[in-house]
Amino acid sequence: MSDTRRRVKVYTLNEDRQWDDRGTGHVSSTYVEELKGMSLLVRAESDGSLLLESKINPNTAYQKQQDTLIVWSEAENYDLALSFQEKAGCDEIWEKICQVQGKDPSVEVTQDLIDESEEERFEEMPETSHLIDLPTCELNKLEEIADLITSVLSSPIRREKLALALENEGYIKKLLQLFRACENLENTEGLHHLYEIIRGILFLNKATLFEVMFSDECIMDVVGCLEYDPALAQPKRHREFLTKTAKFKEVIPITDSELRQKIHQTYRVQYIQDIILPTPSVFEENFLSTLTSFIFFNKVEIVSMLQEDEKFLSEVFAQLTDEATDDDKRRELVNFFKEFCAFSQTLQPQNRDAFFKTLAKLGILPALEIVMGMDDLQVRSAATDIFSYLVEFSPSMVREFVMQEAQQSDDDILLINVVIEQMICDTDPELGGAVQLMGLLRTLIDPENMLATTNKTEKSEFLNFFYNHCMHVLTAPLLTNTSEDKCEKGRVSYLSVYDFYNYQTAQLLALILELLTFCVEHHTYHIKNYIMNKDLLRRVLVLMNSKHTFLALCALRFMRRIIGLKDEFYNRYITKGNLFEPVINALLDNGTRYNLLNSAVIELFEFIRVEDIKSLTAHIVENFYKALESIEYVQTFKGLKTKYEQEKDRQNQKLNSVPSILRSNRFRRDAKALEEDEEMWFNEDEEEEGKAVVAPVEKSKPEDDFPDSYEKFMETKKAKESEDKENLPKRTSPGGFKFTFSHSASAANGTNSANSKSVVAQTPPASSNGSSSKTTNLATSVTATKGSLVGLVDYPDDEEEDEEEETSPRKRPRLGS
C-alpha cells in the first residue's frame, strides 16, 4: 500500500508510563463481523500482519492531539495511540470515529472522561450547561479565575469541561496578555494569581492546551508566569537563562526550520518539566503524564528527522575526523553526538537498532577511536559516554569492528587498547572514568553476551583476539609494579617503594585485578594459560603486602577465585610455586586484629577444608602448620590437620593392602630414581592437560633473565647452609618472622633446574629455627599432595629438633591496616 496518508505507528503505554512502539503499518476503518461493529485495523507494512484490531466503541473517549495523534484507552490500564505520518490521514480516521459516536469532527475529545467515583454524582446532578462559564479575562478577575481553576483539579469531569472552555474561547492567549500588563505595572498580586492559573492549566494534563502554551508565540510568557511563585521572596529568572545563558549551538547549520523549531520547543518544555515544576512525587502519580508524552514524541520526531538527513550526519562525521578541525569545534561535534545518542534512548528497540546501524554505517567507531585518544578531557569524556551507548546497545557490533581492525592495524591503535589506555591514564583522583571504562570492557569480554552460530563462535574468536592483542596492555601496570627486577639477593622484594604508592595507583591496580578476577571466572583455559606463562598469581600476591588493605583484599580475592574452581592444574601451580606463603605472611602480620583481611584469609582456608581439596590441604599442613597451629579462635587449621591425617591413614591402609613383593620392587627406590619418576609423571600430566590450552604467550625479557640470578642465589644459599645450620630466619620487625618468598617463575611452571627442584624445602615448615630446614625434594612433597601410593618421606630427627627449639612470637602488628 503506497498511501502515506494512512501510514501510522502504533503505540501502547506500559506500566512505567512510557510509550512502547508496536510497529509501523497502514490504518483503515472497516466493519468487522466478529466484533459486530466498525473497527480500526492496522496492518504491518513489512509483512501485512495485523498490528491492531480495535472496535470503535460508542462510549470510548478518543482524543486528538498535535494534529497527527489519536489516543484512547481500551481498558483501565491499557492506553493506545496512533501516530500518523500526515495530518490528512489523521483527520480522515478522526471523522470515522466521530461518525460512529455521533460527534462533530471539530471536537478534540469525543467523550467526557468520568471515573467511577464521579459517575453516580454526575447522574444525580441536574442538567447543566455543557461548558464551564469562565469569568471575563480582566485584571480584577484574576483571583476568581485562579480559585476556579484550583477548584476543578480534583474532578475529572470538570477538568475536561474547563479544558474545552479554555480552548474554545482562546482564553490562554488573553491570560498571557494580562501577564505582560501586570509585569509592566509591577502588579505583584496579579502575577502571583497568574502563577497559580498557569500552573493549574498545566495540571489539567491536556495535549490540546499544551499545543497552545508551548507554541513559539506563547512559551516564553508561560515561563514568565511560572517565575512568580508566591512562596518565593524574589522571582526566579528562568527567561533570562533560556534566552541569554542557554545557547543553541549548531555544529552544522540546520536548514529545516521545522526541525529547528522542534528542538527549541523540546528543550524549553523539558526545562519546564525538570526545573520549574515541582517533582512529580508531590502530586498524583500521573498528573503530568501527557507532558511526558509530549516530550517523548518530540524527541522521537527529532531523532527520526536527523537520522533521515544523511547529508547532515555525513558532514558531522567528516568534520569530526578531519585533522584540520580545531579543538573547540571538535568538542561541540562530540557533545552533539552525545546528546543525539541520549535522545535515541527514547526510541523503541527496533527503531534504536536502525539508529545505531546508521551510525555504524557512517563510521562512528573509527571516529571514536580518534577522539578517545585526544588530550582534551571534555572530548574524551563525551566520547566515552557515546562508546557506552554503543556497547550497551550491541557489544557484538563493537567486537566485530575491533577484530576486523586487528587485521590491518598495530596493537597500539586498536580501539580496545585505546580504551584500556584511557582507563590506565585517568587523571581523576577518584578514577570515575576508569570505573566506567572497566565496566564497558567487562561487558565486551563477557561470554554471556557473545553469539554462537553453526559456522563460527564469537566467544573463541574474540577471546583469542583479546588475549593475543590486548591482555598485555591491561596487565602492564600490574606487572610493572610487581616486577621481579626488584629482587634482592634472589628474594622478591616486597616493594619498599610500593608502600608509598598513592591511593590513585592502588585504585587502578584494584580495578585491573577486578577485571582479571572476572576473567578467571568466565574464560577458562585462555586465562589459565596466561596465568601460567606470566606467573601472574605470584605477581598479584606481592600486593598482599600493600599498605592499602583494599588492594591486598583484591589480590586475595583473585587467588580465592582460582582456588574456587577446584582445578588440579591450578592447584599444582600453587603448591609447586609455594604461593600460600604471602597469604600466610599477611595473616600473621595482621596479628590479633579481627578485620576483613583476617576473615577473608580464614574463609580461603575454610573453603579448602570444607571442599576437601587434598593436594592443597597436604601442602598447607606440611609446610605451614607449625606457624598456624596457635590460631585457635577458629577450628579451620586444626580441621585441615585432621583431614590431612585421615587422608594419610587412608594412604597407609592402601599401601599395606599391596602385596609385599610389589612394595619392595616399586617403593623401595633411592631418592634420585623416585624424583625422576615423579618429574616424568608431572610432565606427562601437564602435556595432557595442556591440549586444550592456547599457544603460550611470549614472556617478556626481564622475566627470562630472572631465573639465572635466582639459581646463583640458591647455590650460594645452599653452600652457606651447609657451613652453618644454626642461622635464624630473617626478622621483619622485632619479634616477628616471615617466610621467604623465593620462587621463580620457572619453578612455578615446572622448570626442572637443579636448584628449583628443592623450592618447597627451602621454606622451613613454619619452624622458628633455621636448622630445621632439611631439604625434602619437590617430588616427594608433590607425591604426598597427589595422594598416590607412595609413602611420605619422614626424617626422624625433624621431630627431635622441633621439640628442642624455643617457640618465638609469630605475629607483629602492622601499621596502616
SSE map:
Layout: E1 7-13, E2 19-32, E3 37-44, E4 50-55, E5 62-65, E6 69-75, E7 78-84, H1 87-101, H2 116-124, H3 142-152, H4 156-168, H5 171-185, H6 188-203, H7 207-213, H8 219-225, H9 238-245, H10 257-276, H11 289-308, H12 310-321, H13 327-344, H14 349-362, H15 364-371, H16 377-393, H17 395-406, H18 415-424, H19 432-444, H20 458-469, H21 471-481, H22 503-522, H23 525-534, H24 536-541, H25 549-564, H26 568-576, H27 581-589, H28 596-611, H29 614-628, H30 636-657, H31 660-667, H32 671-689, H33 701-723, E8 731-733, E9 736-737, H34 745-748, H35 759-762, H36 778-786, H37 796-804
Antiparallel strand pairs: 1-2, 1-7, 2-3, 3-4, 5-6, 6-7, 8-9
Helix pairs in contact: 3-6, 5-6, 10-11, 12-13, 13-16, 16-17, 16-19, 17-20, 18-19, 19-22, 22-25, 25-28, 28-30, 29-30, 29-36, 32-36
- Contiguous helical run count: 37
Low-confidence stretches: 114-129, 281-285, 486-500, 665-669, 681-714, 720-817
Strand residue content: 5-15%
Q: Mean pLDDT, rounded to whole units?
A: 76
Quote the distance from N terminus to C terminus. 74 Å
- Round the Cα radius of gyration to an integer and report it: 38 Å
For the report, how would you describe the main beta sheet?
7 strands, antiparallel
Q: How do the strands of the widest beta sheet line up side by side?
A: 4-3-2-1-7-6-5
Estimate the global geometry from the Cα principal axes.
Answer: elongated
Estimated helix fraction: 55-70%
- β-strand number: 9
Briefly note the structural class of the backbone: alpha+beta
Biased composition (Basic and acidic residues): 698-729
Protein name: Protein phosphatase 4 regulatory subunit 3B
GO molecular function, one term: protein phosphatase activator activity
Domain PP4R3 EVH1-like: 5-101
